[in-house]
Structure formats: structure tokens, C-alpha cells
């Protein structure tokens, strides 16, 4: 006799203060095994997290049930990175439990904010690409679209950045040290993943060759599920992150033979695969472990998704059941992996297998930097994944046949388009493999997608013009407005209602209020309150005393020369030079506080030099009475999602100053505009679309556009000429070279200065004058407070387009063809 409760649908605890208190104390007492009176903050935080999870579990199970029964097509988002940010606040928001939780905890003598601050953010990503993945899965859940996010559960995420004498020092990110209450392990669903070995090919009497992979070693992939709750809609999608373990954790015979270290070597070897995130965000190191990571999570994910369809599922119908979205080239090994499964395990012939595979994938490219495009050496690929290399060769042969038919005798084109490159060594161009296999290839902003068509993948665009589309990036308004900026969110809701949170283009209804003095005052109030909140955070976090009556000029993003943090620095040093040289009276300078946030890839020397220089300039400027009250430069360490949530709402000016044609899109630019900061920027990435929507009067444009950059590059760019011909630029660079920011030592920053004067690949010197002129316009505009506020309001009102919900609508319409499941 089945117990009635066993059949009953899972019901969440009552969403009342009493219900919440009961659930919380139950978790504290039974799961943490402590009484409230003796509980640690981490006990309280963990119990709180489990309590919130319990409120969402019923929805999670219901979503899964509906998904299994519905057999609807879903998105499988394959990403090597997810920059999730803290979970507690977002889950409380999604479940509409904020007030209940706050009151319930208060009634237990606890503070919700104190417990929220206890959470360590999962830093399972480097920057833009990883955060975009997190915004996308949030939007799909909120839009009721079936989606499973697949990735890697790195034991160590992006390094923690500290500064020692102004220089970046990396610390390991042991984010799991106190456990992670938001994940649920499923060791019973572990997947075995093979590596190495050789391929045995037998040809039968009919001359049909069948290849069998004889792997050398294997590991286990253990899935950890993390909830992805939709906003107030009762849906909870899943993020499934894979952790590597040894198939045989412990070899007793070797142990008994006394070689204890050897006995567990397999375990450590296996665990290495998901041990740590590679901290590069633009230059692949081509390391074997990185390829192991990529194949590991892809093999686990494909196996998992296919097994979940049930053993009687006909794989011919796979394209109707799923679209595997490739988040850049990092997961593209999934293409030969699916072919291997279909041919070697399921007995499909090549053409049938390709007919299925070539309908299951789509590829998003996130970069324009040639050095960021992954090319895996045939030597390494052949050693680690010999069967996959064979399959890639065959895909290439079949593909080049298509090219040859279309352009007979165009051997140069064949060489240019081949997935296999011969120079500098034999390698596999992963972006080409993704382009050949994908049903669609998209860039992440209109300009980027155009440059992919016209330049980076031009040959392919000529062959398959319809394959190349654009989907401009977006950001989730739940985390980056509702959660990060309650002051502004409440003002917006009080003015136009609540609908904007899931229909962001409704912000347009705010535009008329730009002409309303009271609304402008309230808007400024919110901005000022956010400056106070930021000051309080930076004081405790970094010992920084942030002026709250200055214009807040913010540049936060990964440190990379193409993003041109050096140009921002030249502006600051030039302002300082003008004052200390008496060319400008400090009293005439608009009080500005410059805030940087940026991590440099540990191996990126020049980036680290630039970080050192920024900190040293700050040290000198902040302690020089000549500019006291006028200029401040701060660089809080360890920029991450949590700091972004506090920094962005407080900003007045958003620095988006990359060399035109370099930044694929940018997403920080969108977050700043939606939080009422005005952009100073080049016509690069999504800046172009922001400027079009907010209007030229509400955007400080400067510098060359992409065609001008290309022309100057073609003509030959000589940065030294700009240094020699522009006295203000010369004075600025000379001040740095003079040792003013390095205790008089000329050598410390010589590499930075000489790189700019003699190399300057990203043309900072060429755009300097235009940038300085634009900054003067910023000063003038900021002096007219009402006009500035009006412009800031129009930035918010006209940027609803940059919601990741809209991006998802485009992916669904142009690529996926999935439908919401209500
Ligand atoms: C293999 C090393 C590596 C790792 C990560 C990457 C990412 C593609 C770099 C990245 O994060 N790109 C950023 O993606 C954002 C989301 O689309 C864009 O908004 C940024 O412009 C782009 O730089 C490239 C190469």
C-alpha cells in the first residue's frame, strides 16, 4: 500500500514568517545539527540557503516532470564558464521571499544582510562570456523555456586578486571551503569519460571500414545540479556542472604493496581535470589539461542528455528534441563526440550521423582577436582523442569537397577554409569546425557580426550567407537592476508599475519623466543613495574613503590592452599634470573620482604592469594636496560580480573606450546605462547600438570608428608621431617616464611607456586628443545637473532592448525554435 504522501505532489513550506522560521530552524537543527544559540554565521547562512532551496524544490521537481512528459525541444547550453554571482539574493527575489525571510530572521535575532554577506560567489568564469551565460540561463527560466546549462564544477574558480605594493598577486579561490548549499550532487548519475589510446580500424569483406576507439584511461564525471529559478513564474531550470573523479579512486593492491602515493595517484590525476578554471580570457595557452576539461564536460553532457531521453528514443529525432548552443569554441569538440556516439556506439553510417549532427549545434563567437581563436595541435588532439581527430579529418574532407564544387581550382581558398591548418604546425581551427557544423553562427553585437561576415569568417559567409546572423548581447534586469539597485527599481516601479522587470522595453515609459523636475530629483536621490552604499562597502572591504559628492567615473572589466585602460590612465595623468604644472587651476577641475576594477590573466605581463601603474598613480594623486578634493583614483581589488552589483548603480560615467573593432560587444556598457550612468565610448561592439537607442545627445562618442582604424592600420600607424606632435600627450607620457609614479625610478614603468610610444597596437595615442576633448564635454555636461540627470534618465528609458530576455527571444526566433512550456 503506497503511502498517500508518497504520491502527493511536493508542496513548498508556507510562504509565511512562521512557515519560514519553522523551516529555517528545522534546517539549522537537523541539517546543521546545532541550536540557534550555538550556531555560527556559516551554520545560519547554510540553513538559510537550504530553507530557500526548499521553497524552490517543488517548482524544480514540477519543472522536471513537465519537461520529461512534454518531450518539448530544449536548449542545452554548453559553456566552459558560468559567472553566476551570489545565489541567495537572486533566489529570494525569484521566489518573492525577501520580506518574509527578512522578518523571519529578525524574529530569530538575525540579520538577512549579514547572512547574505557570508556567501562566497561562485567565480566559475573569467569575464564577459561567463557572465553572459549566467544572464542567459536566468532569462530562459524566467521566460519558461526548457533549458539545461552544462558546464564544469571547478574546485577553484577565478583567482582572488590581491595587491602587494600595487602589483597583482593571485590567491587560489577555494570557494568550496565552507561547502556550497546551492548544489545537489548526483553520484548515481556519474558518466565515464575515456581518453587517449588508439583507434583500431577493421575493414569487412564489403570493404566497409569500422573504427573502434581503444582508450587508455578514463575518469568519472559526477554531476552537481544547481537551481536556476525563473522570476516569480514558478519555473526552475537546471544548471548541471560536472566534477571529475577517478573511476577507481583507490588502488588497494598498490596500497598494500606500500606505495601509498601511487595508490591514490589516479584520484589526484582525475580530479585535476575539474580542479581549476583557466584564468585566460583571450589567449588560449593550448595546454593539454584545458582540452581534457573541454572534452570531459562535453562527453558527460552529451551522454547525460541522450540518456535522459530514454533508451527507446530514436536519435534521428534528436534535432527536434535539443539544440546544443556552443558558447564560443570551447565546447566544439561536442561535434565529433556526437558523431562518434552515433557511428561507433549506435551504428549509424556517416551520412545519417552527419544529417543528425549538423542539425543539433549552433555556435556563438565572442571575440575578434585572432589570438583568441582556439587552434588545437593535431599532435595533442591525436594523442588525447585519436578517434575524434579521425572524425574531424573526415568532416573536413567532406566539407572541402563542397568548397571545391563551388570554387573549382581555387586552391588558396581551400587552404584558407580548411579546418586543418598546416602553419605554424598542423592544427585544428576550432572556429572553422564550429562554423561547418553549426546550423547558425552568430556574433554578439551588430558590428561584431558584420566583422565576422566581412573579415574573420568571410570565406564561410560567402559560402553560407544565411548561416551568419547577429544576436546582440543582453543582461538580466533581475540581478543588475532589481537586486543591485533597489533604490532606482522602486522609483521605476512606483512610476510605471512592475511589468518592466520581465518586459524591459517598458522602461520607455520613463522617457517623459526626464522632463519632470521631481522625478529627476528622486532619480538623483537614488544615485546618491547608491554612492553612500558603495562608500560603506569600499570602506569595510578595501579601506577606501570614497567621496560621495564627486562625479564617479568607472572603468571595470578584464585588464586587456584592447580595452585601453591605458587611455583612461593617460586622461587621469594628463589632468594631474595640467594641475601640478599650473597649466590648469585645480579649482576649475570638476571633482572626479576614478574607480578601476580589473583582473589580469596571470601570464599577461603587460596587463600586470598597467595594473601596477594605475595603483601607483592612485597612490600619488590621492596623497597630493595640490589635487585634494579634485581628483581621486581607487582600484578596489578582486573585481567580481558582487562588487559590480554595488559599483555599477553608483556610477555617473561609464568608460567603454576599446579600440573600434576589438570589443565583440561588451555587457558592462549595458549594465551601466540601465543604472543611469552615461557612456563615454568609441563606436565599438554594442556601444554602437546603445548610442543609436539613447541618441547622440546622451552619449559621449569619441575616437576612430572601425573603418578609420582599419585605414590607419593599413596606412601604417606610428604612435611616436602622436607623442611628438601633441604637447599634452607628450607631457603626460613624460611624467610617467620621469618616475613620478615610481619613487623617481625611471625603469619601473618604462615598458608601459615605450610600448605605447613605439608599438601601441591598440592605437591609444591616436585616440588621445579626441578622448580628452570628449572628457571636457563630460565636465561641461556634468556641471548642468538637471540636464545630466535628464540624459541619465533617457539612458535608462531607452536601453530596455539590452535585456537578456530580448537576446533569448532572438535566439529562439533565429536559431532555436524552442517554445515556452507553461
Ligand atoms: C581560450 C581562452 C579564451 C577564454 C575566453 C574567451 C572569451 C571569448 C572572452 C570573452 O569573454 N569575450 C567577451 O564575451 C562577451 C560576451 O559575449 C562580450 O561582451 C565581450 O565583448 C567579449 O570580449 C576567449 C578565449
Low-pLDDT stretches: none
Please bin the fraction of helical residues: 40-55%
Q: What is the 3D form?
A: globular
Count of β-strands: 25
Oligomer: single chain
Ligands present: the ligand CCc1ccc([C@H](C)CC(=O)N[C@@H]2O[C@H](CO)[C@@H](O)[C@H](O)[C@H]2O)cc1
Residue share in β-strands: 5-15%
Corresponding CATH architecture of the largest domain: 3-Layer(aba) Sandwich
> How many structural domains does the protein architecture include?
3
> What's the gyration radius in Å?
28 Å
Residue-averaged pLDDT: 96
User: Would you state the CATH class of the largest domain?
Assistant: Alpha Beta
User: If helices are DSSP runs of H or I spanning 4 or more residues, what is the number of helices?
Assistant: 35
What is the straight-line distance between the termini?
33 Å
**The CATH fourth-level homologous superfamily of the largest domain:** Glycogen Phosphorylase B
Q: The CATH topology of the largest domain, please?
A: Rossmann fold
Which structural category do the helix and sheet elements fall into? Answer: alpha/beta
GO molecular function, one term: pyridoxal phosphate binding
Organism: Micropruina glycogenica
EC number: 2.4.1.1
Modified residues (N6-(pyridoxal phosphate)lysine): 671
Secondary structure blueprint with pairings:
Layout: H1 4-7, H2 17-31, H3 41-70, E1 74-78, E2 82-83, H4 88-94, H5 98-106, H6 112-116, E3 123-124, H7 128-142, E4 147-152, E5 160-164, E6 167-171, E7 183-185, E8 191-195, E9 198-203, E10 209-214, E11 217-229, E12 236-246, H8 252-256, H9 260-263, H10 265-271, H11 288-307, H12 318-321, E13 322-327, H13 334-345, H14 350-357, E14 361-364, E15 375-377, H15 378-384, H16 386-406, H17 411-417, E16 420-421, E17 427-429, H18 430-437, E18 441-443, H19 446-456, H20 458-463, E19 468-470, H21 477-483, H22 486-496, H23 517-542, E20 551-556, H24 565-580, E21 592-597, H25 605-622, E22 631-634, H26 641-647, E23 653-656, H27 668-674, E24 678-681, H28 687-694, E25 700-701, H29 706-715, H30 719-725, H31 727-737, H32 750-758, H33 764-783, H34 785-797, H35 804-816
Parallel strand pairs: 1-4, 1-13, 4-12, 13-14, 14-18, 18-19, 20-21, 20-23, 21-22, 23-24, 24-25
Antiparallel strand pairs: 2-3, 5-6, 7-11, 8-11, 9-10, 11-12, 15-17, 16-17
Helix pairs in contact: 2-3, 2-5, 4-21, 7-35, 13-14, 13-16, 15-16, 23-34, 24-25, 24-31, 24-33, 30-31
This protein binds the ligand CCc1ccc([C@H](C)CC(=O)N[C@@H]2O[C@H](CO)[C@@H](O)[C@H](O)[C@H]2O)cc1.
